[in-house]
């Protein structure tokens, strides 16, 4: 089995059973890969809770998904991710920057609907068969 990263909104949709928002390609990738998140996803979930966008915190959400889909938090050293993030100039969003840097550091695909990430990160995948092929060859 291969590994793939999930962006924050994908994690939230999986937790809230809003997987209907996921295109078929993303669902196939989720079902056929080991699932990882960058620790920054954990922090972004907390941020979203603090500003009232979601009602659940990261501890509850991630623990629930560990049991349901064996979601894991990547243990890649932060220094490696931070150094890689300094090479990313297409976003100032610290969450997106570190999540993308994690995918780049491991050369793992990242499932995301974020248009900016899809535009600038070659490892980003969402809804086309072409990206499915792209994701399967990067391991």
Overview of the structural elements:
By secondary structure, this protein is α/β, with parallel strands linked by helices. The chain has one domain: Rossmann fold (3-Layer(aba) Sandwich), CATH 3.40.50. It has helices at residues 8-15, 24-31, 39-50, 58-69, 78-85, 94-106, 115-120, 129-136, and strands at residues 2-6, 33-37, 72-73, 110-111, 124-125. The chain has a 5-stranded parallel β-sheet. Mean pLDDT is 91; it is low at 135-139.
Strand order of the largest sheet: 3-2-1-4-5
Taking the alpha carbons of the first and last residues, their distance comes to: 10 Å
Shape: globular
SSE order, one letter for each helix or strand: EHHEHHEHHEHEH
Low-confidence stretches: 135-139
Q: Structural class of the helices, strands and pairings?
A: alpha/beta
Q: Which percent range fits the helix content?
A: 40-55%
CATH class: Alpha Beta
What is the level-2 CATH architecture name? 3-Layer(aba) Sandwich
> Could you give the count of β-strands?
5
User: How would a textbook summarize the main sheet?
Assistant: 5 strands, parallel
What is the CATH third-level topology name? Answer: Rossmann fold
Instruction: Indicate the radius of gyration in whole angstroms.
Output: 14 Å
Number of helices: 8
Portion in strands: 5-15%
Summed up, the domain count is: 1
| Average pLDDT, all residues | 91
Q: CATH superfamily, please?
A: 5'-nuclease
Topology:
Elements: E1 2-6, H1 8-15, H2 24-31, E2 33-37, H3 39-50, H4 58-69, E3 72-73, H5 78-85, H6 94-106, E4 110-111, H7 115-120, E5 124-125, H8 129-136
Parallel strand pairs: 1-2, 1-4, 2-3, 4-5
């Amino acid at each position: 089995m291969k590994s793939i990263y999930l962006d924050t909104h994908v994690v939230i949709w999986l937790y809230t059973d809003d997987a209907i928002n996921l295109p078929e390609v993303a669902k196939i990738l989720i079902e056929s890969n080991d699932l990882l998140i960058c620790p920054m996803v954990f922090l972004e979930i907390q941020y979203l809770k603090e500003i009232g966008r979601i009602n659940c915190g990261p501890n509850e959400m991630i623990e629930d998904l560990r049991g349901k889909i064996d979601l894991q938090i990547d243990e890649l050293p932060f220094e490696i991710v931070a150094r890689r993030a300094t090479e990313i100039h297409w976003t100032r969003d610290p969450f997106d920057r570190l999540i993308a840097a994690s995918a780049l550091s491991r050369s793992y695909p990242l499932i995301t609907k974020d248009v900016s990430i899809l535009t600038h990160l070659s490892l980003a995948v969402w809804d086309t068969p072409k990206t499915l092929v792209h994701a399967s060859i990067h391991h």
